[in-house]
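Quick one, tokens below:
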């Protein structure tokens, strides 16, 4: 699995999707020989095939042949909903946390952010 460094994580989904050019789709179709590259179901026509970004477009995946896989509809749907969408959501979430744009709503008890402090006599007071 490809990992995204928090410093490189997107702050929000990209404005424009970068779809595969027709030449890349044709090359991917020829590589697959009409079979889904995930479940191996055969006999798919060029237009019935779906062309998936291996590393999602929203995570900076390039629209190149190396990043393209020819999938059937159900496999594409499954990969998008179980891998790509959660991964993009996590990249945005961890990116915000890493840059300090989001702080925890549940600070560590006794930490400075909790608003309480404990003196040497053991008394707990509000900061
Ligand atoms: Zn499939």
């Amino acid at each position: 699995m490809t990992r995204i460094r928090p410093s490189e994580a997107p702050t929000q989904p990209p404005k424009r999707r970068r779809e595969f050019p027709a030449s890349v789709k044709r090359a991917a179709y020829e590589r697959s020989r009409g079979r889904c590259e995930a479940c191996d179901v055969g006999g798919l026509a060029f237009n019935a095939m779906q062309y998936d970004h291996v590393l999602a477009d929203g995570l900076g995946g390039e629209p190149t042949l190396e990043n393209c896989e020819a999938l059937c509809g159900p496999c594409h749907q499954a990969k998008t909903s179980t891998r790509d969408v959660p991964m993009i959501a996590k990249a945005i979430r961890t990116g915000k946390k890493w840059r300090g744009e989001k702080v925890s709503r549940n600070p560590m008890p006794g930490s400075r952010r909790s608003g309480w402090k404990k003196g040497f006599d053991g008394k707990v007071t509000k900061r």
